[in-house]
Each structure stands twice: as structure tokens, then as C-alpha cells.
Amino acid sequence: MPTARLVARRLQPELLALTILALITRFWGLLSPRAVVWDEMHYERFAGAYFTGTYYLDVHPPLGKLIFAGAAKLLGISGAVLANSQPAPLLRVVPALAGSLLIPLVYLLLRELGSGRRTATFGALLLLVDNALLVESRFILPDVILLFFGMLAVLAYAFARRATGAARGIWLAGAAAAAGIAVSIKWTGLSALGLIGLVWALEFFRDRRGDWRALARETALLSVIPVAIYLGAFWVHFGLLPNGRAGELKMSNSTRAILRGSSVGEPASPTSFASSFIELNREMETINEGWATEEHPSASKWYTWPIAKHSIGYWNQIDAEAGTERWIILFANPFVWWGVMFGAIGVVVALMRGAKALAPRRAVLAALGAGYLLNFAPFAFIHRPMFVYHYFFALVYSVLFTTVGIGALAGWDGDDGSFWRFPSASSRRVFVGVAGATTILFLYLIPISYGWEISAAGMLHRRWILERHIGVSPDS
Q1: According to the model, what pLDDT value does residue 206 have?
Q2: Number of structural domains the chain divides into
Q3: Residue 367 is part of which domain span?
Q4: In-domain check, residue 102
Q5: Please, what is the Cα angle at 333 between 314 and 386, to 5 degrees?
Q6: In the beta sheet, which residues pair with residue 319?
Q7: DSSP character for 465?
Q8: DSSP structure string for 143-158
Q9: C-alpha distance from residue 133 to each of 25, 177, 213, 368 (Å)
Q10: Which pLDDT does position 232 carry in this prediction?
């Protein structure tokens, strides 16, 4: 089926509803609080540096900060505001848009993987009502932007698998570009390209062995484009930041001299760029390694992430006289995170027992399982402070894995003629019950996702699932 017709077939009413709800939840009250929240100060300052030309050193590649700087320019946010870490809530529209588009993207990906409308809706809804993803989508932070482009790369590759001829090449190029953007924001974005490369290699040598011209062409697309984007981000970065200050950079004198030698907006020479690029990437790696001895009160161990054990307090304001509190806390919807974890275990058990309903989904489940491991297992070997939001990529893959498996086992992938025509009453009850429970808990936690004013008693009612290290006094 041609790709255009395939996409049109996916445009169902529930997709429109999910998209509207995603936009509403991510953009509602986006400019509040008018304060610098959590790590917004870092990303504002980095983006502001591109207005002043003052060089900075960060542990991550520069594209995420360049995106924020470009958006600030378009939105009329001054460099002085950003450079001095003053509130710039309008810049939150960038992650909010990425977080909103992630929801319909997941729906389309599930459909492209062979799931029915009900299954795709279920999976997208789980991410829509996750409070942690909601919070991360509403502040000047790069993680949801990274997540969007990583999953966009996977969706583009899924489209490429069905396409032929020039259309396949276009979708592969799109997948490579999205993956290149992801890795140019944070190195963890490399997992998207890794999964695509793994699946592509297995399928190519299974189905197209001997087509050496296609092998060379597609290998070039999947390798050259991401590398070009990664190099290009640094090229722009160096060109916009020529003014290094002595004592501020953890870089060699030679690299600092190279950076000072370029005028604003003028890229360095190829030789200068190559040496600066290599040294800066080494510095980034060195800083990551150096953080192994650092501690942070909101950090958490990688093996605690699936159960969302450690929340993070992003912002708070307490009015002792009025007896009210306002909190913004990166806290997961337990029904989503815990439910997906147990659901995934159930799907694995069903696979091991040879469930017939899962037979057509084995390859898809294997790929999604590999995606989960690529985005979770490497953190076991990283010793720097890490945070629960590092689990977002793995969370999305676990939702995809569990949704595909449960959808097949529950019979949700059957006739799509009527969305509510479930194969049995029990199947409908599972769908409605889980979707309803997760949504209710999402609404229950919304005050601490949006920073709404609530009473001390209202905060206390929610404390049963909160960690003390977010700053809530155990005696309050």
C-alpha cells in the first residue's frame, strides 16, 4: 500500500482526540509559574550564550541548546534574559510541542507495527496520562525533545519497511535525520540509530542478501546523514561562540585560541574545526567520567526507575499564613509505570508458554524488547549521578512492548470497523478499567504536576506515594 494511503488510513477520530488532549494537557497554564524551574537556568544560560558569543562548556552535544536559542530568536526572547537566567516561560512551547506530538506519534507507530485501533489508543493514552512525561514536557529541558526525535526516527524507519523505490529511500533518510538530531541533543539518542541499524541489518540480510548496490546506498543513508547532522551542530556551535574567557573553560589553550580567533557567526577553518570538535567531545566524556564521584540529592539508581521510586521536586512555594502549598514534582503515574512493568512480565511469560495470539507479533516484540534493553541496560555501567527522567526512552519502549502484547492477547487487534466492538465483555472491561484507573490517578496527581495551589491537607493526602528527598518535611 502506498505510504500516503497508509497514513490516511491511520487518521481515525481517536487519533484526533488524543492529539487535542495532548496539546491541552501540555500547554495548559504553560507560562505558570513565572519562575526558573529546576534545570531551566542551565538551558536558558546556554541558549543565551549564542546571543552574546560567549563560549560555554556543557556535558551534552549542542543541538538542544541551539534549538532553544533559535526558538528564543523567533519568539522575541532577548539574549540578556536567557544569559542571566531570568524567567522565560514562553520558551517552554518547544518541549510542550514535542511532548504533545509524542502522543499521536506513538499511536501511529503502534498502528504501523500491526496493532489495531484499540491497542494503539491504549498505548498512546498510557503516555498521555503519565504525570512524569507531562511535567518534563512543560519546562525548558531537552529530554522530551530528544525523546520525540528518537521515536520519530523509529516511526520513519517503520514506514520505510513498507515502502519501495524512492519512497523507501526518503523514509530511510528521514529516519537517519531524526536519529541524527536525537544524538546531537544527547548521546543517549544514539540508541534510536542503534535499534534502527540492528533491525535494518537483520531484515536486509534475511530478505535482500546479494543486493550490494542497495546495501551500499542504504548504509550511506543511515550513517552519513546522522554524522553530518552531528558535525553540523558543532560547526554552528563553534561559529556562534567565539568568545572564550580564560579561566572559564576546561579546554586546552590551543582550542581556546582557535575559538577566540573566529568572529561571531564565522565558522572556523576545517582544520581548526576538526581539532576543536575532537577535543570538545573528549572534554564532554571526561566530565561525564568525572561526575562518578559526585552526589545529588535527587539522583537515583538505574534499577529503581521501573518502579519510579525516586521523584524529583522541581519547584515549590509555600504560604504558611494561608496554609497552602504549590509543588511541581516529577512524579510518575504509578498505574502506568508499575502496570506496564507487570504487564511486560505477563507478556514475556505468555511468549515463553507459546501463546498463539502472540505468534504474529514475535518479531515486533523482539524488536521492542531490544529497544528497551538498548535504552536501559547501558545505565548499569554508568556511575555518574542519574535521574529518573533518564528512563523515559525505556519507558516508551516498555509501553509499546506491553501494549502490543496485551492488545494481541486481549483481542483488541481484531475488526476495526467499530472501535467499541470488543471481542468479549471481559476484554472491554479490561480496556475501560485500566484506562479509567490510570486517568483517575493522573487527575489526582495533577495539582503537583501543574503547581496548583492546594491545602497542606491536600498535599498530605498525596504524600503516600512521594519520596521525602523532594523536600517535603516528614513533620509538615
Answers
A1: 85
A2: 1
A3: 13-32+116-137+302-476
A4: no
A5: 50
A6: 324
A7: G
A8: HHHHHHHHHHHHHHHH
A9: 11, 24, 42, 20
A10: 96
